[in-house]
Amino acid sequence: MEIRILRYFLAIAREENMTRAAERLHISQPSLSKEIKKLEEELGHELFIRTNKNMLLNDEGMLLRKRAEDIIAMVDKTAEEFSQLDNIIGGEIRIGCAESYLIKYLARSIKTFKEQYPNFIYHIFSGDTEPVAERLDKGILDLAVIVEPPNLSKYNYLSIPESDKWGLVMLSDSPLAEKEYVTLNDLYGLPLFCSEQSIRVDFPRWCGENMDKLNFAGTVNLAYNGSVFVKEGLGYLLTFEHLIDTSEKSGLCFRPIKPTLETNMYIIWKKYQVFSPIAELFLKRLKEDYHN
């Protein structure tokens, strides 16, 4: 199974059309069709549902797409690393990040690092801890910034200064907006939503055995999307402070929850990981910035 053929397969999966994919790849349609047929024969499965106009992935195709995307990302990252071996004036690094106002610390480190290495380029992938850690484990990411205590058997880590404080985002005319803070009792009966990760990790340690009394009507993994749901009257968003615009014109407000619930943030990387030169230098900068 050649990398070139996997790129052909992904092009068809994206375009859902053989002709458009061939045009994008700058090869003839018969040649592309022949290569994909050979791939299907090699795997022993058809990968597409073929119609007169489209080529849609079947279940086997969906499986290969996920694997192919990971393989191509790893191949491209490896090529980047080798191209940077003799180029310490710059290079690329890939970082997975949880959604948090405290990412400002990472941004400050990147800013000062770019002053010394102006050709340094960073790629940020945002998500909860699980998808970020999965990409880190596969070698697609160099570093990850997470909001769960790291698995010390797998990762080295640095602690980010400060911690995120939890609270409730609601419409400004909500009765709870009159309060200075929100308690557990205030939350009973309300349609709540937050990330799946926080339901699994954060709120059980906040409300303990009362967890089953809370009504989680849905989950969101991006606070901004959650704030749109609040504006549309779907309920109340539990999230970190500073993530949502709660200025007077926004129509939303934030109230901290009591007792206070805080979450720490960590920069992690795999133990015994081999970094590209620029990634090694950036990690050294992070250690200087956040020695702990």
TrEMBL record:
SUPFAM superfamilies: Periplasmic binding protein-like II, Winged helix' DNA-binding domain. It comes from the Bacteria. Keywords: DNA-binding, Transcription, Transcription regulation. GO terms for molecular function: DNA binding; DNA-binding transcription factor activity. Residues 1-58 form the HTH lysR-type domain. GO terms for cellular component: cytosol. It holds the Pfam family HTH_1. Belongs to the LysR transcriptional regulatory family. This is HTH lysR-type domain-containing protein.
